[in-house]
Write a structure and sequence with these properties.
GO cellular component, one term: membrane
Number of strands: 8
Protein name: Patatin
Largest sheet: 8 strands, mixed
Number of domains: 1
Number of helices: 13
CATH architecture: 3-Layer(aba) Sandwich
GO molecular function: calcium-independent phospholipase A2 activity
Radius of gyration: 20 Å
Helix content: 25-40%
CATH topology: Cytosolic phospholipase A2 catalytic domain
CATH class: Alpha Beta
Pfam family, one: Patatin
Keywords: Hydrolase, Lipid degradation, Lipid metabolism
Length: 357
């Protein structure tokens, strides 16, 4: 991992019995427009950045990009506009011999969009105003990695990374985008092991920030989870044709879809076991057969936008109509403490200077 384990609670100065809220955003490609729409409508209701109501933010793949935006207090409506206007450019196919020679999509359009000054620009992870963690896989070593803000004394490296690199690393979905390379390492989509990052965030809160389970409230927002199931009419031999049809490049896409779908369900059940009623809110919608034909990880056309924006608006309305959920939006976190970077606290250094003077 990119961070080292230490004693539980080291570096945490939060008082006991202080509610601790987590926002966990799942991956799902262009289906993240659904997530962004929910966040935008919630922000419109409260009239403030949603990040100001959470103590920790986690996100994977497109959820990781959104998590970074939330941690920077970039308006969610701006992310909705980004995906609405430029989704088809992000998922514009290039020559790839049906994905055999290279990935069918380039990350260059997304990188160029995120490089705008009103989005990530050239800022680094240290610019985040709220604690955040973003999973990816270091394909050079084969190990999972969690990029984190410096909200613990041991987290002394990741804050130097540019936000664009973190965003592209967590969203480099196999068979869709090429691997993202920076700092002499190759990274692939964190969704392969943590598409729903709620469990990782729960562990972060308990192990590194010293929060007891009974103080934690977790809100997990999905991306209209698709259930990948078998067509009983297909052959059952387990070959390339069985998984991907006549196009071998479709096989890894299918396997990736099965993996993230199963993870989403598993994490949902485990969080439901670990957190008591009222501590866990799972915000998501299942895809009906008709909607499933219009929506996919790489479908960014008008039909997909209509489904994702429409269902997202309805789900946000449902959240705001739930009195228990509205209490989440009333939470005021204690100001986070960062130990390195531009937002680091320097009380010890100031005291030392005063004595020297």
């Amino acid at each position: 991992m990119s961070t080292s384990a230490v004693a539980i609670g080291q570096g945490s100065e939060r008082p006991p019995n202080q509610r601790f809220q987590i926002l966990a955003l799942s991956g799902g490609g262009y289906r993240g427009l659904y997530t962004a729409k929910i966040l935008a409508d919630l922000e419109q209701h409260i009239g403030a950045p949603i990040g100001r109501h959470f103590d920790l933010i986690a996100g994977t793949s497109i959820g990781g990009i959104l998590a970074l935006a939330v941690a920077l207090e970039i308006p969610a409506e701006r992310m909705v506009t980004l995906f609405e206007r430029h989704g088809e450019a992000i998922f514009r196919r290039r020559w790839s011999l049906r994905g055999i020679v290279r990935a069918p999509y380039s990350q260059a359009p997304l990188a160029a969009l995120l490089a705008q000054d009103d989005l990530f620009g050239d800022r680094r992870l240290e610019a985040c105003l709220h604690p955040v963690l973003v999973p990816t896989i270091n394909y050079s070593t084969g190990l999972p990695v969690l990029f984190k803000t410096p909200h613990h004394p041991n987290f002394s490296r990741d804050f130097r990374y540019q936000l664009i690199d973190v965003a592209l690393a967590t969203s480099a979905a196999p068979a869709y985008f090429p691997r993202h390379v920076f700092d002499h390492r190759q990274y692939i989509d964190g969704g392969l092991f943590a598409n729903a990052p709620g469990l990782l965030a729960l562990h972060e809160a308990q192990h590194f920030l010293g929060r007891p389970r009974e103080d934690i409230c977790l809100v997990a927002i999905g991306t209209m989870s698709a259930r990948f199931t078998v067509d009983p009419r297909r052959n059952r031999s387990g070959g390339t044709y069985d998984w991907g049809g006549w196009h071998p490049a479709e096989t890894p896409k299918r396997l990736f879809g099965v993996a993230i779908s199963a993870q989403e369900s598993l994490v949902h059940h485990l969080l439901g076991h670990q957190l008591a009623p009222g501590q866990y809110f799972h915000v998501d919608d299942d895809l009906t057969d008709a909607r499933a034909r219009a929506v996919a990880l790489d479908k960014a056309n008008a039909a997909a936008r209509e489904v994702l924006l429409g269902v997202g608006a309805e789900r946000a309305k449902w959240c705001l109509g739930d009195p228990a959920f509205r209490t989440v939006l009333q939470h005021s976190p204690i100001a986070p403490r960062f130990y390195h970077g531009i937002h680091a606290h320097h009380e010890e250094g100031v005291a030392r200077d005063a004595v020297t003077a």
